[in-house]
Design brief:
CATH class: Alpha Beta
CATH topology: Spore Coat Polysaccharide Biosynthesis Protein SpsA, Chain A
Number of domains: 1
Oligomer: single chain
Distance between the termini: 31 Å
CATH superfamily: Spore Coat Polysaccharide Biosynthesis Protein SpsA, Chain A
Length: about 300
């Protein structure tokens, strides 16, 4: 069975797109894994590079987020629509057709950082036969190796933690995001726990499919002002916890660089190393100037 690297990348710059797919294919051949990018139509050179590297481009579902946000009348209209569906749910379990329409409207109305999960669900429903699925951000990710080696348990949801100093309850953006969605009472349930990044997630197809279904359920119920990372962490420490395997930063497949001090890793030639080892995936590499310069030079 093949694996898949799956990313959602609407309005991505060609340079960021090229670094993502060139680095992926440098270490993961097409016979080993598919690389699928859900995106919108841009210049022909995106398709040309994708064809050259055996990368599949899939059209992103329609998004009305920008149009709604730019119009006060449309914002009011959607507020009324969602209030109607939510009122129906409070009165009792609505018909299945109502739930389908409510979720579909939420998907096209949401910011792409949340809307991507609706697109993932549709794609994986059509392609359930992958061994492992690696969901990844696009703009700020490059590969230094095969993310599927060494092999991780496909029965687990593999959550990659951020810097060890980022814990819930302390003053940081993750705490703020969590409070925005679940309030202080919700925050109390995860206070002191480390934060995992929603930008890099791995697991077998079945467990990833279940995660995305749970994500969508939460995003429909907490659609206003929510960021998917808060929802993702609530599931890791809640309904999905029994199947979660947490991977500490600096010692796992993914190195998330955003809040890591530069003395915790080294740049050796054209590689980033941690204690002599090369992490397969660099996330948020663009936030560290020495790493950004190396990766831009290596994969541009």
């Amino acid at each position: 069975m093949k694996d898949v690297i799956l990313s959602y990348a609407t309005n991505i710059s060609y340079e960021d797109f090229a670094r993502l797919v060139r680095s992926a294919r440098a270490f993961v051949p097409a016979a080993r894994a598919d690389v699928i990018i859900i995106t919108n139509a841009q210049s022909p050179r995106f398709a040309e590079l994708a064809a050259e590297l055996d990368v599949e481009l899939v059209p992103a579902p329609a998004s009305i987020w920008k149009a709604v946000q730019s119009s006060r009348a449309l914002r009011i209209l959607f507020r009324c629509l969602f209030s109607f569906f939510e009122a129906g749910e409070r009165l009792g379990k609505p018909p299945q057709s109502w739930q389908v329409v409510h979720a579909a409207l939420t998907g096209i109305w949401s910011h792409p950082i949340n809307g991507r999960h609706f697109a993932y669900l549709e794609l994986l429903a059509l392609r359930p036969d992958y061994r492992m699925v690696f969901l990844t951000d696009a703009r700020d990710v490059v590969f230094q190796g095969d993310p599927f080696e060494p092999a991780l348990d496909p029965g687990k949801l593999h959550a990659f933690l951020q810097d060890e100093g980022l814990v819930y309850g302390q003053k940081n953006v993750d705490t703020d995001w969590y409070v925005d969605v679940y309030g202080n009472a919700g925050l109390a349930k995860v206070t002191g726990k480390p934060t995992a990044c929603a930008g890099t997630i791995m697991g077998g197809t079945a467990v990833i499919h279940r995660l995305i279904q749970e994500m969508i359920r939460e995003l429909v119920n907490h659609k206003r002002g929510s960021v998917d990372q808060a929802v993702y962490n609530s599931l890791l420490y809640g309904r999905m916890n029994a199947v979660v395997q947490f991977h500490p930063n600096l010692v796992s497949t993914v190195l998330t660089l955003g809040d890591v001090a530069e003395d915790r890793f080294t740049v050796v030639g054209d590689e980033v190393q941690v204690a002599g080892k090369v992490p397969a995936v660099l996330h948020q590499y663009d936030r560290c100037q020495p790493v950004r310069e190396v990766m831009h030079r290596r994969f541009s």
